User: Fold these one by one.
Assistant:
Number 1:
Amino acid sequence: MATSDSLALNKILAVVLIIVGLILLFFAYRSSQSLGDQVTEAVTGSFTDSTMWFLILGAASSVAGVGLFFFGKSARA
């Protein structure tokens, strides 16, 4: 019983990580389309710090969620 509860909890956590990652990536996209960020990108060649953090954390969260969903603990253990 404990392994199926643990497995269900892992799947729920994986889905939450994927959703949070996608939300952060959406915020990164919206931030990169703002006038201030586009001016900064045109002058410096890179995004603002906040946009980069949204991109990094969104990608990391999404990858971690997908990894946990497909490669997390199995019910066999």
Number 2:
Amino acid sequence: MFAQFLSITLFHALPAWSLIRWLPVPAGPWLWTVIAFFLLQVFLLIFGRDVAFLKEGIAARSTYRLSMLSFVLILNLFLVSIIHLLIRGIITIGGWRITGAATLVPVFSVALLIILGGLLNARKLAVRHVPINATSFPSSWQGRRIVFFSDTHYGTLNGPGMAETLVNKIESLNPDLIICGGDLFDGPKGKFGATLAILARLQAPLGVLAVLGNHDYFYLSRPGSSKELLQRQRNREEMPMGEETRLSAVKKALPWCFLENESVEIDDIIFAGLRPFSIGDEKRALEFLSGLDADKPTILINHKPQQIEEAADAGVRLQLSGHTHGGPVFPMNIVMRILLKGRHFGTTHHGKMILDTSSGSGISLWYPRTAGRHEVVVVEMTSGDNRV
């Protein structure tokens, strides 16, 4: 914990020093105000999510929201502080007399405008169309639409309002099948019942399928707060998912088919769903994948864009994933693109299998959104030349 506290504090040190050093404000109260502000950010980043996991109510939800905002705020202030140092270096080399405030205020203002733009961007919902070659699937699927959404994170950062927007958007797309890629809920429950009532309206001729996300797995595994559950989460231990948990309430409220290392056949296509979040579940997920019939057309729903090689080897033709949010914060989107080799967003090919990773359909812990956009994905089964 001390190492984490030290590293995060040092990350905050540059923007704090920049404010103290370059703004012409008397050191006394201003110095302590800046120090107090950044120490609060450190606290929020280290303990904010734990507070939300252990507590209920408006205070816990507010702490969670502030902790998410703090991460993106400090990241942007850190980046612009580096830029400001470069600007001051150029001014020093050039021998110009320009005050620190004249350079710091515009640079920090840009950072705050980016944050404001990210707050507005996080409330938008786009539609991305992915045409798929239907000739590798049963002919009855040609011309059909599968609408895929993921990572709504209802409960703390989102609520009934954004659920209403999502449901209206999906209904306007006239899907034949709807698939939820997980992380439906997150954090203190918020307006849990009202959100469930709106989501229950989702329907399609071929039904609604869903898998759990890692946030569902941890936050829906409890009726209340628990330090024991928090420790289980950190150790990737199996979570209780019985009748007394919120997951049970979700399944009773939503007439969806939840697939947890299970499969269902719909009109001659196998739809398989994974639940690989605990160490034990991950082992069972891999065993389940290895048992798939490679001769049957299979679409895999996996919250994370993982188990890709195993899925391709098992003969899966299409994997739908989320989790990454497409890299919702600059420059983490670039880092994520490099680390995940382009699998963080959009369509990639892995042998004969297609992987499509959604950028998510709701506000996440990466908030505000300063890169990319929220979306629902329409998989178009087509034999046209524009297919993937």
Number 3:
Amino acid sequence: MHRPLIFLTAFLALCASAASAMPPGTSLRPEPRPATSQATPEVTVSSQQSSLAVVRSIRPALRGADVAANAQPIVEVNLRTTPTSDAGFARWIDAFQGRARAQGIRQATLDTAFRGIQLDEQAISRDQNQSEFTRALWDYLDSAVSDARVTNGRAAFVANRQTLEQIEARYQVEAEVVAAVWGLETAYGAMRGSSHIIAAMATLAYEGRRSAFFEAQLIAALQILQSGDTTPENMTGSWAGAMGHTQFMPTSYLDHAVDFTGDGRRDIWSDDPADALASTANYLAAFGWTYGQPWGMEVTLPQGFDYAQTGERTKRSTDYWNRQGVRLADGGGRIPDHGQASILLPAGSQGVALVIFDNFHVIERYNPADAYVIGVGHLSDRIGGGAPFAGSWPRQDRALSRDEREELQRRLTAAGFATDGIDGIIGPNTIEAVRRYQATVGAVPDGYASLTVLQRLR
């Protein structure tokens, strides 16, 4: 793979100016659907923690609409030494420990994990009061693939080149892609989170709103501790349970984390990111990553193109798209044969057009939001020396709020264009319903769920 010498230049320039001239970066954490958000103030990460960034955490959400801020700056964690004072929480812990023992968790592990545990009021507050913050895809990408994140990514790549290339050779996942996930998840390790995972998972399981999910995560976290991979004090992450450089949930850790360094522990929390980066490559490989295949490529569409053919569900050979007149935006060449492909218009006919391949859907397994997938893919291209998107975005548009997305779905369904659910998620079903509605009213059937479509339905 071609990796330009600009990596070294960027790294040397960064080392010379990190203390005073580095622009802010951001950490973008994935959020399972449905997505919500909560902004956090910008914080400065000390040079001892990271020389790469001043960071603000904003977590992306489904299909480019919502964002949520859940990662926290790295700080030293001191577990409280007094037992929990919440009687209900204490009773829940007693009952839970019985269930945990039935699943093979030893009492010694439970005693160590729950020593001095306190109800995590901050986790409850964040879980219950995540306010929606809608954001257009292009605004999200302005942060996800900002100049700062690209510069920091190239520097991080150079600093970890040997490790990343060894990971690529072992797992057959391109090093730039692994680095891009790292960049979006924790700003290249600068924002790994400071919440005590056992306390947070126990609190959210006790809270009850998603008790089954968080109890499963708590059991998995205890299994991690029982295996000896880390200690309760070291097991930190986001308030919602995502851990380490690339933010694995405990269950994903059990399935995919690896000991790349060979020290006997799968240590995704260490300042050394090797195990975390290898675990991410292993995760992507497990879900079918095809080495050498792009996630997607920017294209231009010819006049008279049939927009009804766009969308993730319509897959055709690259030869078919080439015969339709679709061309690469970079140079106007034909689309290379990387297997079946779809034409994706994440912002409709007035925005960037992409041809996407199977690897696009593999990144979706990390986070199903189109915004996140495009962010990872485009950031990986930029880290590798690629250019920004050539096309423009409809920046005059604004993102629909959740209430407006649900209204859109209700009105589409009432008009005979079923979305198969009213959930505020603009997924393939809603996009197809929008496309069918647009075709009946003489609009370009690009499936773009815009305010214009909603207003017309009204």
Number 4:
Amino acid sequence: MITVAQIMNEVLELPRSDRSYLAAKLIESLDEEQELSPEWIAEIDRRVRSRTSGESTQIRQDELHRDIEKILA
């Protein structure tokens, strides 16, 4: 039987667009009574397409944190 920790390790190795899609689906599954709005679904789809097409790029987490710290300083 696969553990949650094993699943998490595998998921964290996926490309960002795949992780984003999985995160959205997990959040959606937690709130069964309230569906995502059509606008939010369209935005998620737009972001996934943008990432998979290469239109948007990734930034490393440490770079992001450094940039945020510069802005907030």
